[in-house]
Amino acid sequence: MKVKFFSQLQSAAGCEELSLFVPGGITGDELWRLLEEKIPGFGRYKNSTRLARNFVYAEPDAVFHAGDEIALIPPVSGG
Amino acid sequence: MEIEILITSQPLVPVKTTPEGCGAVVEFAGIVRGEEDGGVISALEYQAYQPMAEREIERLAREINVEHPCGFVRVHHRIGIVPVGETAILLQAASRHRGAAFAFASAFMDRLKQDVPIWKIRAIPVVP
User: Fold this and answer.
1) What are the domain boundaries of chain A?
2) Would you identify the CATH topology of the domain A2-73?
3) What is the pLDDT of residues A5-57, one digit of tens each?
4) pLDDT tens readout for residues B62-85
5) What residues of chain B lie within 8 A of the CB of A68, using their CB?
6) A52 and B117 in contact by Cβ < 8 A?
7) Measured between alpha carbons, how far is residue B36 from residues A74, B7, B43, B84 in Å?
């Protein structure tokens, strides 16, 4: 799956996106654990970040699969 | 309701709107101010997750339209570097009577600032 970062999360991750290999589905909590393993300290953004799957905000109990485009959405500030 | 959505790095151009059947057009323009967080700036830089931002704009517009029906809505948002004094967002809401258009515009801007994945990523200071 592709994981995309925006705004301050892009700076924190040091990249615009990551590709993760997930053999089955993973929950949001599992995704955050994977990201924390790859980017130590990244978990501090969890509480202020929403997850989106394939361009739609994900429900809290969503399960993400290979082939999904996941976006980490920090607080928005358009307008 | 007809919706026109544009997310662009080009300057936003005012467009005259007179949809058929609509007697009211409310227009909101969000302009970059010359200060941000107490500092003098020359520009703001915006970033969007464009495919999702377009979908969210349409979703919000259709949701708000249920309560405040409009015949036509135009949402243009600029991304990239937007100099002070230039328009970052242009919203036009057209309805039969003024109440719905005013209410739509207000509700839409509130929701945009909560849900649409667009960010001010950088304030560019004035170089002395």
Assistant:
1) 2-73
2) Ubiquitin-like (UB roll) (3.10.20)
3) 999 999 999 999 999 998 889 999 999 999 999 999 999 999 999 999 999 99
4) 999 999 999 999 999 999 999 999
5) none
6) yes
7) 20, 23, 10, 11
CB contacts of A71 in chain B (<8 Å) are 49, 52, 117
- Residue B37's SS3 state is coil
Q: What is the pTM of this model?
A: 0.96
| ipTM of the modeled complex | 0.95
What is the CATH classification number for the domain harbouring B106?
A: 3.90.1170.40
Q: Measuring CA to CA, which residue among A73, A75, A74, A3 is closest to residue A38?
A: A3
Among positive and negative, which fits the CA dihedral B5, B9, B10, B11?
Answer: positive
A76 in reach of chain B (CB within 8 A): yes
Give how far Cα B89 sits from Cα of B36, B40, B76, Å: 17, 21, 6
**Dist CA A69 CA A49 (whole Å):** 16
Question: What's the one-letter identity of residue A78?
Answer: G
By residue range, what is the domain housing residue B76?
2-125
